[in-house]
Amino acid sequence: MNHLNQPIGRTHFFKLLEDMTAYIERLPEIWLRDVSACADSNYSLPVRIVNEDPQSNFFADNLFINGTAYGSDLPEGWQLIHVPGFLANPGIHGTKNPNFTVISFGSKTILIGGTAYTGEIKSPYSASLILSCLSKRKCGECIAAQVRAKKALLCFLD
Length: 158
What we know:
Helix content is about 30%, strand content about 20%. By secondary structure, it is α/β, with parallel strands linked by helices. It has a single domain (about 10-155), classed as Phosphoenolpyruvate Carboxykinase, domain 1, CATH 3.40.449.10. A hairpin with a 7-residue loop joins strand 1 and strand 2. The protein starts with 9 loop residues before the first helix and ends with a strand.
């Protein structure tokens, strides 16, 4: 890790997820989309996208492969929650800043908050990082390469 990218503890991750969920529950509407990352069926990952705003959800629709073929039988996959209006409290959530991207490989969850930049959904350290890590490449090599490509706060939780 480096001065930007720091590990986050399990307790902080689940507190962040809990507080983001509470924030989402207070919204008048949310946008859900079931998609797939990677056209190669050997590496394809189902991803459920949860957005606070429709433009981010539409962006995800253009970025990923439509997952409507799953119907109600969405296989267990990843969840990406993008909530620009939610700001982390570093003292409570263990992040370095109020804006954050946190990836939990154990929970198969990506949390993005505090930034309205929809490009965070496609950032090199979200879906492409996970695909690379789960393919034949070693995770450590993949993470190092992706972090060099994008300088931003990134937290990992196994």
